[in-house]
Amino acid sequence: MKPLLIALLFLLSAIGTAQEDGWTISSGKVDQYTGIVAANGRIGILPEDKPFQTKSIILNNVYDKESPLGVSKILLGMNFANLDMEVDGELVTKDNISDFRQELDMKTAAFTTSFTFKDKANISYTIYALRNVQYTGYVDVKVIPTKLLKLKVTGKISTPETYQDPISTFRILQDLETTMPILQTVAKSRLGRHTVGTSATFIWHAINSTRENQRPELTHEKVTEYDNRLSFEQELKKGEVFEFAWTGAECSTQDFEDPQTESERFVIFNLLTPRNDLLGQHFKLWEDLWEGDIIIEGNVQDQLDVRLALYHLYAFSRGDSNLSIAPMGLSSQNYNGHIFWDTELWMFPPLLLLNQDIARSLVNYRSDRLGKAKEKAINFGYKGAMFPWESDDTGEEATPAWALTGTFEHHITADVAIAFWNYYRVTQNLEWLKERGYPLMKEVADYWVSRATKNNDGSYSIKNVVGANEFAPNVDDNAFTNGSAITALQFAILAAAEVGEPIPLMWNDVASNIRILKFEDGTTREHATYDGERIKQADVNLLTYPLNIVNDQETVLKDLKYYEPKLAEEGPAMGQSVFAVIYARLGDAKEAYRLFRRSYEPNKRPPFGALAEAATSDNPYFATGAGGMLQVVLFGFGGLHITEEGIVQKNPILPKEWKSLTITGVGPEKKTYKVE
């Protein structure tokens, strides 16, 4: 344990400064660096620790095959967010600057970098993934010279080598007296499934964009078709504040018939919309998002950690998209950008409480793909609908064939239906339940009836599955799979009654008789052959939270004490979150807080605290872990429950490390709950 504790202390010392306002995280120059993504639910822009450099741009729900014989993978976009700046002919780099600082303002989703270049200029820039113009990014730059200097700035569209046949151009479009300079690259994705069009241009805030004689002269340089550049030069006097922006838009045939032209329109919109108006709309949309917030008094670091988790869930999603959230959101291509149970079980519940528009997008993503789920059930010899373990834009199974999870991890189908009923419980949207909710829940219930096998004693088994604990493949009667199937069937019965549809007798028969196995001492047994092995993540304990199937205190405590020590260090963070929620609901604030911190603290990566999937991994940002830690706060300490009566509060509890907990914007009525 000692080396781990030493490593943890080092990590904590490297994490960025906790600002007292609870909204900003900042850092100077560090040796270990993991950036924080600026995202708007459509694109994610990941900054680096080098001046004017961004690591990547990720395009949500835009996929091509990773290889000719591989599965789908989310696209790494063309990078339009890199600039080069030269001062008196010298390129600005990390080696010739001082006072380097980066800051994330979560309230406005603004990522600002500032530094001093020698004795010549103070420079700053802020990256936005515009919430209002969702396929665009905006880099807002300020230069304050401390002596006379000559500035050269180059904006770039860098196309990854995996793209095919790029065409890079520069054109000046004109309508009457309005001229619109557009740098552009259009190319095919790696195996040709999509055409991607990216456009970009400079904006000079103090200059009327319609009067070309006021603008610096632009120079186009096409290094290669994969490296397209546009630059300008400007002489600046000492103390003369010079502000400009670089904006880019990226569109694909996933969303547009003509992505090339549409990307131009977005850039022109940003070019000709005054900065205060454009950014003001972005700020207002983030202000609306933060109506659903979590306020922790008495512990600034916990406040920042929790708010950073919520920031990422908001940044990775949109209420107007009918899209879901991948485990790593829009921060990377990890897990191929596919959609797992991570959304329904881990990210969805906090969003359901705090933003029903986003929650509706997440459930609609599944109902839009119900047809493919029904096809999959037929193809495997079952009835109803069978959802893929990994989903992409098509709704077909997207898991690599070598991974047994794709063929056998079936609890995902129940997880989807459970999320659907919880959405109705909170929103009471009967029209949605009739049109989208119940049709899917009915197919899921029919699936579980066909999937269950009747035993000689009248009980039912679900055989040959991979459960939540993926260390145990191809087992019978996995606790969570069986428990989630029971819950999905019970919820389908309630939904049928709500919409006035007949209830098949088999739904209740199977739900009432699916086996939940026990050891001799009454501890819940994870599966039919489980005998105390290590577990990858909580499985049995999910029967207590969120399923409420195991709910007598004696068994709940037995299951907690038996399975918590068996959780592997290399397992994902969510297991600790489950244990923490349960301890909080049992009234044990000390154990709950210990496990709350353990669910994410070892996973934080410097300098901003981005979460990796596990203490031993390095693949941030793990949005699933964010969902888990937020559930501890909302459903554990906050005492919130999703019930047939909607959201109710029962027995909230506060760790001694906090003075108070306030949860705002809860449910359709946007209620506030405070725990002191």
TrEMBL record:
Residues 1-18 form the signal peptide. It holds the Pfam family Glyco_hydro_65m. The keyword Transferase does not apply. Keywords: Hydrolase, Signal. Coiled coil: none annotated. InterPro entries: 6-hairpin_glycosidase_sf, 6hp_glycosidase-like_sf, Gal_mutarotase_sf_dom, GH65_N, Glyco_hydro_65_M, Glyco_hydro_65_N. GO terms for biological process: carbohydrate metabolic process. Residues 307-501, 530-600 form the Glycoside hydrolase family 65 central catalytic domain. The keyword Hydrolase applies. Residues 39-163 form the Glycoside hydrolase family 65 N-terminal domain. GO terms for molecular function: carbohydrate binding; glycosyltransferase activity; hydrolase activity, hydrolyzing O-glycosyl compounds. This is Glycoside hydrolase family 65 protein.
